[in-house]
Specification:
Mean pLDDT: 87
Helix content: 40-55%
Structural class: alpha/beta
Largest sheet: 6 strands, mixed
Number of strands: 6
Shape: elongated
Order of helices and strands: HHHHHHEHHEHHEEEEHH
Oligomer: single chain
Strand order of the largest sheet: 3-2-1-4-5-6
Distance between the termini: 63 Å
Low-confidence stretches: none
Number of helices: 12
């Protein structure tokens, strides 16, 4: 089988999961190779996403690793079958950076997303005009076509919130992000009203982190933790800044970010009070009256 020099995110996820399963089962690469009657190098290529894996071989490895749960096996088989498929975002390959495209792919497959936003409204909850204003501010020399293309991508990403099994979104939103006048007063009012309406959905939880919370000192920027339907699959942390994008998959580091999210959530206002504060700020008040 030829070396896969450009694996998709799904292929990399499957490869990482199979390696983690082998390690958890205390199996060596040599034992896995014997199960498939193949060279050890083939297992190494599978686990590094340099090579795909046939369904028959996947099932044999899952048998060896003691994976009996039917749902888990079915989900991993789907991941294998759909590994080469590209999503709707591939239409925007001329506009999107590879890292952003990877993130959209992960988001599309995730079951839960835990987001901490320190400066902006989360992308999945942005209005069209707010997104345009953000794109123009972040890319000073952006053409009209580039602004519109990136705005369309942001709007299409919302589909994960309305699909048959919608993404469960947990947002900790800094109070200061509600007060930044991105795009002007009218754009911001529409954005805050939209936030309130989205907060009414059962799969969306929005809580506001007060400006005076000490947790701000531990936050170095926005972060998102993505969880997946497969119980055996490791969460992924996405940390974004102006100059870099970082994916974190090592379980120990992911655990630290999960703890940070829990701290921020514990320091946030309850859901009902958070929505009341957003409504207050939308009316032009500063939140001091809460």
């Amino acid at each position: 089988m030829p070396v896969n020099r450009n694996p998709t995110v799904r292929q990399r996820r499957l490869a990482r999961t199979l390696k983690e399963m082998r390690v958890a089962a205390r199996m060596t690469i040599a034992q896995s190779a014997r199960q498939l009657a193949c060279a050890e190098s083939k297992i190494s290529r599978i686990e590094s996403a340099q090579s795909g894996i046939r369904l028959v071989d996947l099932r044999l490895l899952l048998d060896l690793y003691g994976v009996e749960d039917r749902a888990t096996r079915s989900q991993l088989e789907s991941l294998s079958r759909e590994g080469r498929l590209r999503g709707w975002w591939d239409r925007y390959s001329d506009t999107l950076s590879p890292l952003y495209a990877d993130y959209i792919s992960l988001e599309a497959d995730a079951s839960d997303a835990y987001s901490v936003e320190t400066f902006l409204i989360p992308g999945l909850l942005q209005t069209e005009d707010y997104t345009r204003a953000v794109v123009r501010a972040q890319i000073e020399d952006a053409s009209v076509e580039q602004v519109e293309s990136l705005t369309k991508v942001r709007l299409e990403r919302r589909s994960v919130l309305n699909r048959e099994s919608p993404l469960r979104l947990w947002v900790v939103l800094s109070e200061s992000a509600l007060k930044h006048q991105i795009g002007g007063r009218a754009v911001m009012r529409e954005q805050l009203d939209y936030l309130v309406s989205m907060a009414g959905k059962p799969n969306i939880n929005i809580q506001v982190l007060p400006e005076d919370s000490d947790v701000h000192a531990a936050l170095f920027g926005p972060l998102v933790i993505l969880s997946f339907p497969e119980s055996t699959e490791t969460d992924v942390v996405y940390v974004d800044s102006l100059l870099s994008t970082l994916y974190i998959e090592e379980p120990g580091e992911v655990f630290k970010y999960s703890n940070l999210f829990r701290r921020a959530l514990a320091e946030s206002l309850p859901r009902k009070e958070s929505i009341e504060l957003i409504e207050l700020i939308a009316k032009g008040k500063h939140g001091d009256e809460r």
